[in-house]
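If you are new to this repository, start here. Below is one unmodified record pulled from the training split, so you can see the exact layout before writing a loader.
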Amino acid sequence: MSSEFNFFQHWYPLTPLEDLDTRPTPVTILGIRLVIWKPKSSDTYSCFLDKCPHRLAPLSEGRIDEKTGNLMCSYHGWQFDEQGTCTHIPQADNTDIVSKNKDNFCVTALPVRQATDLLWVWLDANSRELAEKTPLPLSPYADTSKGFFWSSMVRDLEYDWQTLIENVADPSHVPFAHHGVQGNRDKAVPIPIKIDTSTQDLIIASIERGFRTTITFEPPCRLEYMVPFGNEKQLGLVTYCIPVTPGKSRIVALFVRNFAKTLHNFTPRWWNHVTERNQVLDGDMVLLLLQEYYLQQQGLKAWKNLYKMPTSADRLVIEFRNWFDKYCQAKLPWEQVGIHPLQHANLDYNREAILNRYKQHTQHCSSCRGALKNIQRLQIFLLAYFAISVSIVALIPDSQRLLFGLPIIISALLGLGVYAGLKLWLEPKFYFVDYIHAHR
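And here is the target side for that same chain:
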């Protein structure tokens, strides 16, 4: 009898550290709603279950108290320190109530770590000793001491964790689903995948074509590609695939390499997100949503009969599906957190909701949030400049209007053109861009 895989006793990356705000931030993993916050007296973040013990109000709607630096619930003002201990109850007639009931009034605090510029959480608060002994699922290539550097991205996705793993484990879809972005359908070739290792805790595959590509799946979340170029240059994609709720997942990706650092430093993080990274995820979204819907209609274990996978390019997908069937019984532990997913959920085919970049990415990404704010401010400036320029030209005497007024009008019109480009081309990339495969 196969052993059961425990999804809760593992480390999960919540988000890149650079994307965290000073205010409490909500996040959901495996149906468990959490709140991330940073005490003023600490250099590290804390992570609690997102509910106040008083009346179960969400602590993510709270604030950091300016005097104490603790997390304050916005419903009744209860405060908690970084260990989750209740430090203040404004309604208490006797201050001894707080000191005598610390264990009863505390918030559940989860073990956290900070590494590779990510915030990590251990979901089982009752196994702290095991958490301390368990290493983070770090990529050996996300290591600055070895000359590697990386950029990061996070996005919430409209399909399930098992669909996300299956998709990332399938390199043969890239030339087609991402044609013109990261691949070329006219140059697609067979991809011979070989399974080198397969256990409950690790699957390693390789592609022996050209440069040897290694693909590593370390359950439940790390799925990594590493491609060497010659003897020294290496390029990799490290993804962490996070189960959120039934039919929802989150990807935290690190794009690592050890060459072309000047170009990396010169290119703004948000520019890569809006021009390439989001496009890649957009290209998969509708395809995977419908694929998942069709599979769920027959049951997740029906993939063996429904999927037709005759080539070696599908070997890693098959290996993952067999792993999921054997160790997880083809399901995530939703019922353990009180969630009962519907087997035949209704399909919501609203493309603007499915491909909503703002909700899924921009609001979570500090780089894109900041860029969007600056773009909107620049638009206001350009409109104001145009209006002021026209007013100034109108006041210039007729004899001097051609000499002085014409350059002002030309600059104002150029500014108006820049405004139109920002408004109609760049700003929408932070919100919604429809991805139509037939037009590519």
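Two things worth knowing about this chain: The chain has 13 helices and 17 strands. The mean pLDDT is 92.
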